Amino acid sequence: RAMDNVLERFQFYTPSLNSQVSHRLQMASQLRQAVQKHELILHYQPQVSLDSGKIVGVEALLRWQHPEKGMVSPLQFIPLAEETGLIVPIGEWVLRTACEQGKRWHDMGVHGLTMAVNLSAKQFALNNLATVVRHALDDSGLDSHCLELELTESASMETPEKSIEVMQLLKSMGVRLSIDDFGTGYSNLNYLKRFPVDQLKIDRSFVQDVTSDADDLAIARAVIALARSLHLEVLAEGVETLGQYNVMKENGCDKVQGYYFSKPLAVDDCTRFLLEHTKAS
Ligand code: C2E
Ligand code: MG
Ligand code: MG
Ligand code: MG
C-alpha cells in the first residue's frame, strides 16, 4: 500500500518516468529493510551556549549506511520515507535511540545535556505522538526535560489549532519544543505567539553570509529580537567560522551549532567529545 503513494505521484507513463519510479520503488523497499538490518544510525552534533561556552545539547541526525551507496544523507531519503509512511517507524526508532543515548551519556556523568530530535510533519500529525514520546522516555529512563523536539514552521502550520493542542500535551510532559529552520517556512506570528515553544533555531541560510551581507545580519538580529520579546531561547544553526560565532555572540544569541565547534559525530566520537569538554565542569 505504501508503494501506491509513490506511484500516485507519477501520472504519465514514459520510459524515463518509469525508470524513476522503479528506482524509487527499489529505494523504498531497501529503506523498509534498512531498519531491520540496522543500517540506520544516528550522528550527534554538539550545541554550545554562548554564555558559558559549554556544550548544553546535541542534535540527533539520521544517517543511512547503505551497503552499496555508503553513507546516505537524510536529505536523500527523508522525503521518500515521508511519502511511503516509513517515516513513522523510522521516526519512532530515532526517538527511542536518541533517548537511550541521552540516558547513557547522563549515566556517564554528562549532566544537563539536551537531546534534540527532529520530527517530520507526518509524525507530528499522528494521533499517538505523545504516547510514542512517553514510551521512549519511560523505556529509556531519560528525564523528559532533557528531550527537545524540533518541528518546522510548515509542520506546525498545517493544522495550527491541533498543533497547539499537541504541543501543550508535550509541554505538560516536560518536553522542550524548538522551531527548526526558522525563517524559511510560513511564519504566522499570531500562531508563533500561541505555540508553547521554548526555542527558535535560526536557519543556516541566514547565518552563512552574516558577516558580509547586511540583509542576513538584519534578519539574524530580527529573529534574535523576536525570540527575546517572546521569551524564547534562540540558537544559530550552521555556524562555521569565528566571525559568524562572534556576530551571534555580540547580538545576544543564546546558543550555536555548526562546524565551527563540531560536525555531527558518530556516537563514540561524540562520547569522547562530550567527556573531554565536560571534564572541567
Ligand atoms: P536540520 O534539522 O536543520 O539539521 C541541520 C543540518 O545542518 C544537518 O544536516 C547538519 O549536518 C547540517 N549542519 C550542521 N552544522 C553545519 C555547518 O556548520 N555547515 C553546514 N553546511 N551544515 C551544517 P543533515 O544531517 O544532512 O540533515 C539534514 C536534514 O535532514 C535535517 O536538517 C533535518 O531536517 C533532516 N533530518 C535529519 N535527521 C532526521 C530525523 O531523524 N528525522 C527527521 N524527520 N528529519 C531528520
Ligand atoms: Mg534539526
Ligand atoms: Mg535546521
Ligand atoms: Mg531541516
TrEMBL record:
Coiled coil: none annotated. It comes from the Bacteria. Residues 24-278 form the EAL domain. This is EAL domain-containing protein. The chain holds residues 420 to 700 of 700 of the full protein.
